[in-house]
Amino acid sequence: MAAVGDEAAAMDSISREPAAQPAALHPAAGGAAPAERPDPAAESPAAAPKKTGTNSDGGVETAEEAVEPAESDINELCSEMFDKMALFLQGELTATCEDYRLLENMNKLTSLKYMEMKDISVNISCNLQDLNNKYASLQPYLDQINKIEEQVSSLEQAAYKLDAYSKKLEARFKKLEKR
Amino acid sequence: MASADSQSRFGQSVKGLLSDKVGSCSGDVIALTRQVLKGSRSQELLGQAARNMVLQEDAILHSEDSLRKMSIITTHLQYQQEAIQKNVEHSKNLQDQLSHLLK
């Protein structure tokens, strides 16, 4: 509660001198630097937490910025905060990276599958070309088979004619025998 | 608005103001990151690409099966062609015999 009262007084003193702000900034910067430097000195919480003061120099009142001494572990907390922030951002971006990796793996597997299929297709193409060449070399034999088939048909016709003639002969022989 | 903010922050300490500011900046960075990732639509596009590839997988497997069957059929055709080659060599003698018969 006392600290709040002191802070209010400090804020009041600052708000009362708006024209002295440029002059106040330099002593404030000078006051902040000594406030940041003695970090080990700030370990004593019993020491005055704020530095406020008014200097009157030639009728112009100045005021120093109200600061609190930095805690000893503030640096660690800051670095921890930044580390965790970086970890979070990395995690957010890793999700997209993992999606890309998944697609990359799927594409690689598909390309392997297509390469196998390509090998099979090339093999089939070579075999079919050989088969076509062999069937082309078989063509004279197939023509011979066609001729054989025609000759067999004509042989069959000749056999039928011979059979019919022999039956006629048998009938005439029997007729002559009856006489 | 600025005056209302300054009035609401009037009673707080510098430490509290600083921590609030740090927290708001952190939240802004997080929101910005999420907005950038959301605006790039990378999640949707990559998910859609993965889904389409999964849909194509069935067709790819079917094509592979068909090619393997074609390979087996080609092998059978080769065996048949070899058998035909063996048997066709007898046709020469057969033709000579037939031409002799039909003389």
UniProtKB/TrEMBL annotation, chain A:
Residues 62-71 have a biased composition (Acidic residues). Belongs to the BLOC1S2 family. Residues 1-71 are annotated as: Disordered. GO terms for cellular component: BLOC-1 complex; BORC complex; gamma-tubulin complex. This is Biogenesis of lysosome-related organelles complex 1 subunit 2-like. Residues 18-49 have a biased composition (Low complexity). GO terms for molecular function: gamma-tubulin binding. The lineage of its organism: Eukaryota, Metazoa, Chordata, Craniata, Vertebrata. One of its GO terms (biological process) is endosomal transport. Transmembrane segments: none annotated.
From TrEMBL, chain B:
Its main location: membrane. Belongs to the BORCS7 family. GO terms for cellular component: BORC complex; lysosomal membrane. This is BLOC-1-related complex subunit 7. The keyword Membrane applies. Transmembrane segments: none annotated. The lineage of its organism: Eukaryota, Metazoa, Chordata, Craniata, Vertebrata. It holds the Pfam family BORCS7. Keywords: Lysosome, Membrane. The keyword Lipid metabolism does not apply. It is found in: Lysosome membrane.
